[in-house]
Write a structure and sequence with these properties.
Blueprint lengths: L2 H19 L7 H16 L10 H15 L4 H4 L1 H9 L5 H8 L1 H14 L11 H11 L3 H15 L6 H21 L3 H15 L1 H35 L4 E7 L2 H11 L10 E7 L6 H15 L1 E2 L5 E2 L12 E6 L5 E8 H9 L4 H4 L7 H15 L2 H6 L11 E5 L5 E5 L4 H8 L1 H5 L1 E6 L2 E3 L11 E5 L16 H33 L5 H11 L4 H9 L5 H9 L7 H15 L6 E3 L8 E3 L11 E5 L5 E5 L5 H7 L4 E6 L8 E10 L4 H12 L3 E10 L2 E10 L2 H11 L5 E6 L3
Parallel strand pairs: 2-6, 13-15
Antiparallel strand pairs: 1-2, 3-5, 4-5, 5-6, 7-8, 9-10, 9-11, 12-16, 14-15, 14-16, 17-19, 17-20, 18-19
Helix pairs in contact: 1-2, 1-3, 2-3, 2-5, 3-9, 5-7, 6-7, 7-9, 9-10, 9-11, 10-11, 11-12, 12-13, 12-14, 19-21, 21-23
Length: 726
């Protein structure tokens, strides 16, 4: 279509929009609307949408739906133009703010955030997804736009691709219809329901539509005959009222046909008769029951289908007395009895028929949306547009994030990758080494944000650790970690117990409670479980256990005495060494603990073992807390000799990131050629384009190690480098 023809048709649509919305505009608002339209015509006039229509036509049609069919004003209509200008990067956000205001920008940015979710791959039906939409939309008026856009797509259904058609029906069924109901947009809800059925089940829709038209004259006659005796009896009783009747909607009738397994003419409540009490009533409840009594005297009621929502209103506030009666001809009719006040609440309030048939209580979101709707219904259109509606939105204490499959998970504000992993599955959490969040690799402690799409990265070599607890917000994740740690401890204890049984058989020692008690007393351990775990970890030497069980035990202070003697002897022949034990004592036999591999510059302490001398641990060693709490009498002070940094130390690094060709060569080049570091071993595992590995190398001190880590982090596709035991 030529640009001139597009402009001519667009101008006509714009004038129609202006005619609808102009009575509600403030001074100067017309110029804002005109600028939005002219900007769209200038920048987007020749761009076609998915339906093959000029994009500016779509903008104008959606704006007209918002203004004419939803009753919205300027601040809700402007984003219909602004969001496409932002999406196609025709204007900068700062320009939007200066030209149309902060509200238009905020709503439009929220809509773009929702569009980036790729709704075709998201579980749109869940309550969590609805909460995510509200959270991302920034302003409730963004939800109105989504419904208007959905209605526009359905009106151009035949021009859409098959994928777009399926998405339009999905969004209508799962999102727009529930929100239209909750916001009191019953006309929009009815249109959406009809469109969904018309396109998803066209044969059933056309058949029911045809039958309704065939039945209409007959039903009108039936209605007149049905109410005649009721009207007469109520008039004689002095009760002022009016009568209404209507067919149920085609989708509603279709559901009843399927549920009742009958033809349309046999549906119990194909149409409903409503008796509305219009007089001045001192006791509404009593008057409604009085009308019920008169109706039930004329027609036989089905007491099993009596619904008293006057004595006990629905949680939504809906009040009405429903009964189903049978005519002399055997036809069933639903009769709804209510006052004028009750009818207004039913028509305009929370209690639309679609909602009060939903099971369960109103959700937290329903209550919030109800507040929004009360604001929309209790103000004029002009006043509504001036309201900062987003201020009613409750302060968010939760975020909503997406799995790769599109499922929405609700987590507390500040939740980490670990929280998400355990929310999905405990095995995923136990083996988590990081995640791809919005296609960027992040560590396990990374805090998540609203709308993040997360893919958990795992390693078969990963296991839960005690320090993981500080990264978790949810009790579920914390409990799973604690359980895994407890199970590991039990497995460790079982391993130690098996080893003790095996050694007892070898030493020809009877395994019994007295023997276990003897070991507990000697090693000053409280429980057998801790004893077995210590044996499994080799914290206790088997040679020492053998000595205790096969001969008299040394005095309790023998270890300290022997060490003190050793210290004295070693002071006689001092030689320079890396570690100073206690008060300036050097040259004591020691080993650097393999569990934490201390290097010069680490804060350290000594632990006296039996048979292996003293082991030197880092103060933040994974086993430090256990050693200090259970074997404090075997802990001694230790520090580095000032010249200790001259010798090489082994350090183990964990390195993770995105895998690529040439990565190992780059790592090797940096370490050996640039940094002149001796590599002892390299082990890299790759899975799903992500690598996780360990590098053992030699460094001279902690500062040297920090510089190595800093340089490795600069290698392309490397996401994280840290000491393995940190």
């Amino acid at each position: 279509m030529e640009l001139e023809k597009i402009k001519t048709k667009a101008d006509a649509k714009y004038l129609a929009l202006l005619k609808v919305i102009k009575p509600y505009l403030h001074r100067g608002d017309t110029s804002f609307l005109r600028k939005a339209y002219e900007s769209s015509l200038l920048h987007l006039g020749e761009i076609m949408n998915d339906a093959g229509q000029p994009l500016v036509f779509q903008q104008l049609d959606i704006a007209l739906i918002l203004a004419h069919e939803m009753g919205m004003g300027m601040q809700t209509v402007l984003p219909a133009f602004v969001v496409e200008l932002l999406k196609h990067k025709k204007v900068e956000p700062a320009q939007i703010t200066s030209t149309f205001g902060e509200t238009s920008l905020k709503i439009s940015q929220g809509l773009l955030s929702i569009e980036n979710l790729n709704l075709s791959k998201v579980s749109t039906k869940s309550e969590n997804f609805h909460k995510l939409l509200i959270s991302l939309s920034n302003d409730i008026r963004g939800i109105f736009y989504l419904m208007a856009k959905n209605l526009y797509d359905l009106r151009h259904y035949s021009t859409l691709s098959q994928a777009s058609q399926q998405l339009a029906i999905q969004i209508a069924r799962d999102v727009s219809i529930p929100f239209a109901h909750r916001l009191g947009l019953y006309n929009i809800k009815t249109q959406l329901e009809n469109d969904v059925m018309q396109f998803s089940e066209p044969e059933a829709y056309q058949e029911i539509s045809r039958k309704i038209e065939d039945l209409r004259p007959r039903q009108q006659s039936f209605f007149s005959n049905f109410i005649a005796p009721i009207h007469k009896a109520l008039s004689e009783a002095g009760i002022e009222c009016e009568f209404k009747w209507r067919f149920k909607t085609i989708p509603s009738i279709y559901q009843k046909i399927k549920k009742q397994n009958v033809d349309i003419e046999e549906v119990y409540d194909l149409f409903a008769v409503r008796i509305i009490l219009t007089g001045q009533l001192s006791d509404e409840k009593a008057e409604c029951w009085r009308v019920y009594s008169i109706v039930s005297n004329i027609y036989t009621p089905d007491t099993l289908r009596l619904r008293d929502w006057i004595t006990l209103p629905r949680p939504s506030g809906y009040e009405s007395l429903h009964t189903t009666v049978m005519t002399p001809q055997g036809k069933f009719v639903e009769v709804q009895i209510r006052t004028r006040r009750m009818d207004e609440i039913a028509e305009m309030g929370d209690a639309a028929h679609w909602h009060y048939k939903e099971a369960g209580r109103i959700s937290e979101m329903d209550k919030w949306l109800s507040e929004i709707r009360e604001v929309l219904e209790s103000h004029s259109k002009e006043e509504t547009e001036n309201l900062q509606i987003e201020r009613l939105k409750p302060a968010s204490t939760h975020i909503f994030v997406l799995t790769p499959a599109g499922d929405v998970k609700e987590l507390p504000q500040g939740a980490s990758v670990l929280d998400f992993a355990y929310e999905v599955h405990s095995s995923l959490g136990d083996t988590c080494i990081g995640a791809r969040v919005n296609n960027k690799v992040v560590p396990i402690k990374h805090q998540l944000n609203n709308g993040d799409k997360i893919e958990i990265l795992t390693s078969k070599n990963q296991f839960p650790k005690l320090d993981w607890l500080q990264y978790c917000m949810t009790s579920k994740a914390r409990n799973k970690i604690k359980k895994a740690l407890s199970e590991d401890k039990l497995a460790e204890a079982e391993q130690g117990k098996s080893g003790l049984l095996r050694h007892c058989r070898k030493w020809k020692v009877n395994y019994n409670d007295e023997m276990v008690e003897k070991l507990l007393k000697h090693f000053k351990i409280k429980t057998a479980l801790e004893l077995y775990a210590s044996l499994a970890r080799s914290d206790i030497e088997w040679a020492e256990v053998k000595d205790i069980l096969t001969q008299d035990t040394l005095p309790a202070n023998s270890i300290n005495n022997s060490v003190q003697t050793k210290k004295t002897l070693q002071k006689i022949q001092p030689t320079p060494d890396a570690i100073i034990i206690g008060d300036e004592t050097k040259n004591i036999h020691y080993t650097l603990a393999r569990c934490c591999s201390p290097i010069y510059g680490d804060e350290v302490f000594g632990f006296i073992t039996v048979g292996r001398g003293i082991t030197i641990h880092r103060k933040n060693c994974p086993n430090a807390l256990m050693l200090q709490s259970k074997h404090s009498y075997r802990i001694i002070e230790a520090r580095w000799y000032e010249k200790a940094g001259e010798k090489p130390y082994q350090a183990l690094l964990q390195i993770t990131g995105d895998d690529r060709i040439g990565l190992l060569a780059d790592i090797s080049h940096v370490l050996t050629d640039e940094l002149k570091v001796n590599i002892l071993s390299v082990n890299l595992d790759s899975k799903d384009g992500f690598f996780d590995g360990k590098i053992k190398l030699q460094v001279s001190n902690i500062a040297h190690l920090d510089s190595v880590i800093h340089r490795l982090m600069k290698i392309k596709s490397v996401a994280r480098v840290k000491r393995f035991y940190d």
